[in-house]
Amino acid sequence: MGSGSRFDAFRALAERRGRPGVRLLESLSEAAKAGRGPAEAWAPEVAERFGLPAASGLGPATFYADLAAPHGHRHVRICTAAACFAARAGRHLSEVEGVLGVRADQVDADGEVSLQSVRCLGYCYTGPACLDGDTPCTGPTLADQLSGRAEPQAPPIPALDATGAPVLLAGVVEGADAWQVWPGVVRTRTPERVLAEVSVSGLRGRGGAGFPVAAKWAAAGGSPDTVVVANGDEGDPGSYADRLLMEADPGRVLEGLALACFACGSRRGVVLVRSEYPRALARMRIAVERARADGHLGRRIHGTDVDLDVEVVAGSGSYVAGEETALVAGLEGGAAVPGRVRRTPRGEGCGMSRRWSTTSRRWPRSRGSSLTAGTPTPHAAHRRRPARSWSACRNGSLGLAATRSSWACRCSGSSPSWAAARVRVRS
C-alpha cells in the first residue's frame, strides 16, 4: 500500500482522543529550524493551529534542547559530554567556536551559523564529535573538517563476536539477513506459543534491570490496542549500542519489534530514535518502507489475518526522554518529563485517559526465581508500592496479572528492547 492510502492508526488514535501526539512536536521542530527567533515568537502560533493553548506549544518548545536552541541556516551540534571532553581536554569546543565564528548555544549576527552543545552523539570511540547538519565529523581534526580543510570522518562502530554463534550481532558481524523468522512465526504460531518459548528461553531485558522479557510482553494482556515502543533513546557516555543496531541492522530491529507486537497481540509499533542519530533515523525509516514493500508489515501479513504497522518517530533532544514515563509523555505531544509518581506504562496512553499501575517496592521470593524477598531490584525505577501478592507459575517465573494495556515500553538502557517496562503479579 502506498503511503497515501495507508491508515495511520497511531496518529488516528491520538486525534480521536483529542491529543496531537507526535504531530505537534514535528510542527514545533519545523518552526524551530526555520530560525524565527525564540520559542515565544512561534510556539504559541503552532499550538493554536492544533486548537491548543499557548502553553501546550511553549512547554515542549522550551523543554527540548533541539527546539530551544537557536538555529541558523547552518546548524552544528557539538558533543561536550565526558568522552569527547576527555579526548581533547575540552579544547575542541573553543577550536570549533573559532572556526565557525560563533559561541556555543548561539547564532551569529546574520543568522547564518549556529552552534549547539549536546551531551552525546554516539561517537564516544572516536571523539570529539559533532554533526554539521546531519553529517558527522569526528576526531582530533574536527575544526579542520568543519572549515573544509579536511574531509568529514566518521568511522563505523567497531563490533565483534566472541561466542562463535552471534544472535544480536548476526547481521552486523556476519551479514546474516533479517526477517528470516517472522514469516514462519506469523503463519504457523500463536502469540501464546511465542510467549511460552521466550519464557522458557529465560531471555531478559537489556535495560539494566534484567527483567524477564516474557513477563514484560505478557503484561500487555493481548489487547489489540497495545502500542509497543522500541526505545532507541540513549545518551550515557559510551552507550551507542542502539545506534549500532539501528544503523547497521535496522531490519533485525524491526523484526524483533514485530515479534514483540505479535506476542503482545498488538497491531501497532513505534520506534523512537533520538534526534542526535540522524543516520539511524534515516535507515530505520528506509527499513520500514522496505519491510512494507516485502510484505512483512501492513495488512494481512503473508496471507494471514495479522495486521501490523510501525512508525519511526524522531526525538527532540533531551537526556531524560528515554525514561519510560517521559517517553510516553513525549509521544503524546508534551514535554518528556518523568512522572512525579513514576507509573508503569501499562494503563492507557497515546492521548487516552491514563490508568497507570504501580509495581512492588521489593521483590518477593518465588519458587524457581533468582530474586529474593526484601532485596531491592537493580534498577531504582522498580522501587514501588508493594503489590498485593505474588505467585510462581509452573516454570518458576512470576505469575502475571493479565491487564489491558495501551502502552508497552522498556526502561531506558543499553539497547532497544520491546514490551511493558514492568508488571504487577497476582496470586
Secondary structure layout plus pairing:
Blueprint: H1 9-16, H2 22-33, H3 39-49, H4 54-63, H5 65-68, E1 74-79, H6 82-88, H7 91-100, E2 106-107, E3 113-118, E4 129-132, E5 135-138, H8 142-147, H9 170-174, H10 182-188, H11 191-201, H12 213-218, E6 227-232, H13 241-248, H14 250-264, E7 268-273, H15 278-293, E8 309-314, H16 324-331, E9 407-408
Parallel strand pairs: 1-3, 6-7, 6-9, 7-8
Antiparallel strand pairs: 1-4, 2-3, 4-5
Helix pairs in contact: 2-3, 3-4, 11-14, 13-14, 13-15
Give an account of the 3D structure:
By secondary structure, the chain is of the alpha/beta class. The radius of gyration is 22 Å and the shape is globular. Helix content is 34%, strand content 10%. It is built from 16 helices and nine strands. Helix 2 runs antiparallel to helix 3 (39-49) and helix 11 packs across helix 14. The protein starts with 8 loop residues before the first helix and ends in a 19-residue tail after the last strand. It has three domains: 11-68; 74-147, Glutaredoxin (3-Layer(aba) Sandwich); 179-408, 3-Layer(aba) Sandwich (Rossmann fold).
Q: Can you summarize this structure?
A:
34% of the residues lie in helices and 10% in strands. The protein has 427 residues and is of the alpha/beta class. The chain folds into three domains: 58 residues; 74 residues, 3-Layer(aba) Sandwich (Glutaredoxin), CATH 3.40.30; 230 residues, Rossmann fold.
Q: What key attributes describe this structure?
A:
single chain; 427 residues; alpha/beta; Glutaredoxin; Rossmann fold; 3 domains; 5-stranded mixed sheet; 4-stranded parallel sheet; 16 helices; 34% helix; disordered C terminus
